[in-house]
Amino acid sequence: MSNTEYENQRTAGRQLSLSETTTHKPNFTRNKPHQATKKEAKPKGHEAFLKALETSGAIICVEFMESIPADQMLLTGVVKHSDAYTISLDVAGTTTVVFKHSIRAFTCLTPKEGE
Question: 46-108 belongs to which CATH class?
Answer without folding.
Answer: mainly beta
